[in-house]
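Continuing the batch. This is chain 6 of the set; chains 1 through 5 are on the previous pages. Same settings as before, nothing changed between runs. Recording input and output for traceability.
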Amino acid sequence: MGTGDYLDIYFVRHSITDWNLEKRYIGHTDRRVIKSQLTRLEDLKNTLDTIRFDSVYTSDLCRCLETLAYLQIPLKYCADTRLREINFGDWEGKTYQQLKDKQAYRNWIDNWEDNPIPNGESARQFKARIDRFLHECIQQQIGSALGVNKRILIMTHGGVIRYLISSYVTSVSFWEVAIKHGQAIRLTLKKQEGEWICSSLSAVPFQEKER
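Output for chain 6:
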């Protein structure tokens, strides 16, 4: 990539759980993946096997740990609670049909950033912990060195990936970030005038048009 600081961050969304199939809200509830669904990750597994990662980070919830174990990345991982999905509080385990007539839920659907989840996590809290994680992660990888290229894998949840991608790609909103269970997105960050900016964004393993 030439001179300068670059980070290739591979965001992987965990494989599917029973609650995902049933379209239930699942945040901090620790559900296991459906083992029979893991074979759908074979193409991703083969692709990631060709990449030498410098660091691997993961949510501490078992659906992420089990997905990471299946991918067999030959590197010790760091589990971090800050990579958890948003805490859905009173809505954990509930479906849209069960919640659609509740005013607090309708307000949240209309504007999730300004309307907190009852007994759950606000958008401000959610964003702040993820921002802290990524800031520390970048500092650990780059430090004060110049001309560093690093590849990082982050195993996490849909909401976390949507937030981080939309934070760096101004043309994409939070809800426009599309990533299915067991899929990955590569975000390349370049340091320019002291700021980290998106250099490219692509799907993994299928390379689509970069943003």
